[in-house]
Specification:
The complex is a heterotrimer of chains A (349), B (199) and C (294).
Chain A: E1 2-7, E2 12-19, E3 28-36, H1 47-69, E4 78-84, H2 88-105, E5 108-113, H3 114-126, E6 132-136, E7 141-147, E8 150-156, H4 162-173, H5 181-189, E9 202-203, E10 206-207, H6 210-225, H7 240-266, E11 270-274, H8 281-293, E12 297-300, H9 303-306, H10 310-322
Parallel strand pairs in A: 1-4, 4-5, 6-11, 11-12
Antiparallel strand pairs in A: 1-2, 2-3, 6-7, 7-8, 9-10
Chain B: E1 8-10, E2 20-27, H1 32-40, E3 49-52, H2 59-74, H3 83-90, H4 97-104, E4 113-119, H5 127-137, E5 141-143, H6 147-153, H7 156-162, H8 171-174, H9 177-193
Antiparallel strand pairs in B: 1-2, 2-4, 2-5, 3-4
Helix pairs in contact in B: 2-3, 2-9, 3-4
Chain C: E1 44-48, E2 53-58, E3 65-70, H1 79-102, E4 110-114, E5 119-123, E6 128-129, H2 130-140, H3 147-150, H4 157-182, E7 185-186, E8 195-198, E9 219-222, E10 229-230, H5 234-251, H6 259-267, H7 273-289
Antiparallel strand pairs in C: 1-2, 2-3, 3-5, 4-5, 6-8, 7-10, 8-9
Helix pairs in contact in C: 4-6, 5-7
The chains are: A alpha/beta (349), B alpha+beta (199), C alpha+beta (294).
Catalytic activity (chain A): L-threonylcarbamoyladenylate + adenosine(37) in tRNA = N(6)-L-threonylcarbamoyladenosine(37) in tRNA + AMP + H(+)
Subcellular location (chain A): Cytoplasm; Nucleus
Domain Gcp-like (chain A): 36-314
């Protein structure tokens, strides 16, 4: 069976085509294309502009994905699209495109939860069977574990998502948004040495990032006023790189801690990192050190899969489709709020 | 009337070898003033922890103070002159050293006295030496170092006062008898453990 | 092109071991706290929690049992951050436990600590964590369907009785949490792994209503105050309840329906508890909204 997936919940438009050859065999990625809308430095992407970007690229990307996959319309079993969560306008623009394809090609629709898409693709790619999942992106920070037909949320950010915290700090520093603000913070952090004191906000398996963002922004403002600022302990001059370093060390330590707590709680030794922030190598390394201490291992994917993409929507959608799940045309809406644990996961034991 | 004087010798859990405690208890002590003076004068022959038994609830209570003192000794975190004065200070739940001596240490009016001598790896003292010296210098009757004896000597009201555990809401008011004693003891142990940390 | 694991991924074992947090697969040896370095026999490891290792050991004399909670430094954490967190957490936990105990909240007593070495020595609590007890109890009733569905069934007598026992337990938890909140402490990590059921020495005390198996009997003791803080803010209290509610929902979905019993008892446990329950509704709403973009 073959499905096409359309993803556009944030600033990436992704189209992917996947084939599930036979039960027990690995899925085949036939094509996986992405086009990103980048705002200028110091700015975030606005829903209106992002939606416009998606509308102007979707047809071109679908055509290219079909050509690359070397499939014809008759080969496609269903059309999967991101139902939510995400930003309203971009979600809607992609849902419209999915409906159009459904009518044009006479294929059924499958609305997919974006987070479940990340999780299922991560499991498929890495082979992690029943991991604790850390889902970290610009819009979501969740620690998830599977139990009784649902991906249950054990912990999450109580205010802003970790990716949002990083993105907004990148804006404060006017770091480029290309290829991604978090990526550029990571590169800068590699040159940092001084660890500055930031709040460490973990509550059980939950955490919060707005206080950290406020603190690091104050430090950034201080640094701007006083470029000769030195670390009182080491005497080293404090740089922007140190700010990025301190921010990363603090927020990733928090994420690893809440993940470890969930692992201890459910008795799992595996952890899977998904979502855009999951590309961060420092986070992956820290998670690996933690998992090793617990006698387990960490699973992560590269940027093809952890950054928003269409293939994960095609994959998760096809899993649901095979269990008989359909989204009728008149119900093919999208929603900004769609919790991971709302999805009935019929395809797992 | 005097039979063989009692002197209990202990080692405590989780300490390196070579740390040995000798503990003796005396009642009807008649020369407390003299003993205190030896401490105040810094008489090196009198390096003991002299503790007023009126503020010691139990053997555990005293051993906990010895343990804290020895850990602080080992990690270089002692606040007072030597490990023996540190034992007295370790009974306190606050950081005021001279106050701790007034509250827990020997005073001229002390009649029931606990004596602690610690044998350190670097400064070993044998049981016999301690016994001999104490028998010579302390005018009082040697009794057993045990909960029964200490229970008869302690003034619980005074303990509550020095550890500030008189509060009405306190759990110790709700429980009765042995439970109450135990509850008072664990609260005291907590106060001692948190001394110096703004507990 | 076939889907292949990218370099970052590590091959997975073909079969997953069942959950067993008390016996971690020990590929890397656990760090032993320095306090044990002179002991003739290694201490008994009870659990490997996320942040701390819990040992069963002795306090002062071989006859006095105690628990030692050790927070080893984390290899993933920057050492400065690690030392700061360890010191803060050891001291904060000790202070909170001492305060709770003083105010009559059922928690283990504090025996000793070393904030630099990262350990806290506390009273040994007999019994079992609620998570295990509850799962044991639920498992025994798995064939009897979800209790609510059968409450009025003609043959539902035993189930009804069982339900009564669960309700009683939920009430005792609610009261214990309320007592803690009433003295100005929030726990910060309320899960069913951080509540213990301590067997009673005699059966005359509260809550010992026997349905025969007695699995859910015992005194509720709150443990693991590693993330606790002193606070009287309704928001913090409500988040405590929300965390516990979600722990029930995710760990014991079949007992989640009984959470209202817990909240009812909580509501009666201290002055101002009802305001917290109102606040809990706000916190829940926020929780549901949280899946949107930040």
């Amino acid at each position: 069976m073959i499905s096409i997936g359309l993803e556009g919940s944030a600033n990436k438009l992704g189209i992917g085509i996947i084939s599930h050859p036979a039960p027990g065999k690995p899925a085949l990625i036939l094509s996986n294309l992405r086009h990103t809308f980048n705002a200028p430095p110091g700015e975030g992407f606005l829903p209106k502009d992002t939606a416009k970007h998606h509308r102007s690229w979707v047809v071109k990307l679908v055509k290219q994905a079909m050509a690359e996959a070397k499939v014809s319309i008759t080969d496609i079993d269903c059309i999967c699209y991101t139902k939510g969560p995400g930003m309203g306008a971009p979600l809607q623009s992609v849902a419209v495109a999915a409906r159009m394809l459904s009518l044009l090609w006479q294929k059924e629709l499958v609305g997919v939860n974006h987070c479940v898409g990340h999780i299922e693709m991560g499991r498929e790619i890495t082979g992690a069977q029943n991991p604790v999942v850390l889902y970290v992106s610009g819009g979501n920070t969740q620690v998830i574990a599977y139990a009784e037909q649902r991906y249950r949320i054990f912990g999450e950010a109580l205010d802003i998502a970790v990716g949002n915290c990083l993105d907004r700090f990148a804006r404060t520093l006017e770091i480029s948004n290309d290829p991604a603000p978090g990526y550029n913070i990571e590169q800068l952090a590699k040159k940092g040495k001084v660890l500055l004191d930031l709040p460490y906000a973990v509550k059980g398996m939950d955490c919060s990032f707005s206080g950290i963002l406020a603190s690091i922004e104050i430090l950034a403002a201080e640094l701007k006023k006083n470029p000769e600022w030195r670390d009182p302990i080491t005497g080293e001059v404090i740089t922007t790189a140190d700010l990025c370093f301190s921010l990363q060390e603090t927020v990733y330590a928090m994420l690893v801690e809440i993940t470890e707590r969930a692992m201890a709680h459910v008795g799992s030794h595996q952890v899977l990192i998904v979502g855009g922030v999951g590309c961060n190598e420092r986070l992956q390394k820290m998670m690996g050190l933690m998992a090793k201490d617990r006698g387990g291992s960490v699973f992560a994917t590269d940027e093809r899969f952890c950054i928003d993409n269409g293939i994960m929507i095609a994959h998760a959608g096809l899993l649901a489709y095979k269990t008989g799940f359909r989204t009728a045309l008149e119900e093919s809406t999208c929603t900004q709020r769609f919790r991971t644990d709302e999805v009935f996961v019929k395809w797992r034991d | 009337m005097t039979t063989t004087p009692h002197l209990q010798t202990f080692t405590l859990e989780h300490l390196p070898p070579g740390y040995v405690m000798h503990v003796a208890v005396y009642e009807n002590v008649r020369n407390a003033g003299f003993l205190q003076k030896q401490l105040l004068d810094g008489n090196e022959g009198f390096e003991y922890a002299f503790v007023d038994a009126g503020v010691v609830l139990s053997t555990t209570h005293l051993l906990a103070a010895i343990y804290r003192a020895l850990r602080d000794f080992q990690s270089g975190r002692m606040k007072s002159r030597n490990v023996h004065s540190e034992v007295v200070f370790s009974l306190s739940s606050n950081n005021n050293i001279s106050e701790s001596f007034r509250r827990f240490g020997i005073t001229p009016s002390t009649t029931n006295l606990i004596v602690v001598k610690i044998s350190l790896p670097s400064k070993q003292v044998s049981r016999d030496e301690v016994l001999k010296h104490l028998t010579e210098v302390i005018e009082g009757e040697s009794v057993d170092f045990c909960d029964e004896v200490l229970g008869g000597m302690v003034d619980e009201k005074r303990v509550r006062k020095v550890y500030k555990l008189g509060g009405g809401k306190s759990g110790i008011v709700q429980s009765k008898g042995e439970g109450e004693k135990r509850e008072l003891e664990v609260l005291v142990l907590g106060g001692m453990a948190l001394r110096g940390f703004g507990g | 092109m076939s889907v292949q694991a990218p370099p970052a991924a590590i091959p997975t074992p073909s079969h997953i071991e069942p959950p067993n947090p008390s016996h971690p697969a020990s590929t890397s040896p656990l760090p032993l706290p320095p306090i044990f370095q002179h002991d003739p026999a290694p201490p008994q490891l009870i659990t490997q929690g996320a942040e701390a290792l819990l040992y069963r050991t002795t306090y002062l004399l071989p006859s006095i049992q105690c628990a030692l909670k050790y927070r080893p430094s984390k290899p993933y954490r920057h050492p400065i951050l690690g030392a700061r967190l360890t010191k803060h957490r050891i001291l904060s936990e000790a202070r909170v436990l001492a305060k709770c105990r003083k105010e009559g909240v059922p928690v283990p007593a504090v025996y000793g600590l070393d904030e630099r070495e990262g350990w806290l020595m506390i009273e040994w609590i007999a019994g079992e964590v609620l998570r295990i007890k509850l799962n044991e109890w639920l498992k025994q009733r798995k064939d009897e369907k979800v209790p609510e569905e059968r409450e009025n069934a003609p043959d539902g007598g035993r189930i009804h009785e069982g339900l009564h026992v669960l309700k009683g337990l939920m009430g005792r938890i609610g009261s214990a949490v309320g007592r803690m909140h009433g003295v100005g402490i929030v726990h910060g990590d309320l899960t069913t792994s951080n509540l213990m059921l301590r067997p009673r020495s005699n059966d005359t005390a509260e809550g010992g209503a026997g349905d025969g198996d007695g699995i859910l009997d015992g005194e509720v003791i709150l443990i693991d105050f590693g993330l606790a803080s002193q606070s009287t803010a309704d928001e913090d209290r409500a988040v405590d309840l929300y965390v516990l509610e979600r722990a029930f929902g995710s760990t014991h979905p079949r007992a989640e329906g009984m959470f209202s019993e817990l909240l009812a008892a909580y509501g009666k446990s201290f002055k101002g508890a009802n305001i917290v329950l109102k606040k809990l509704e706000d916190v829940r709403m926020r929780g549901r909204k949280r899946s949107m973009l930040g």
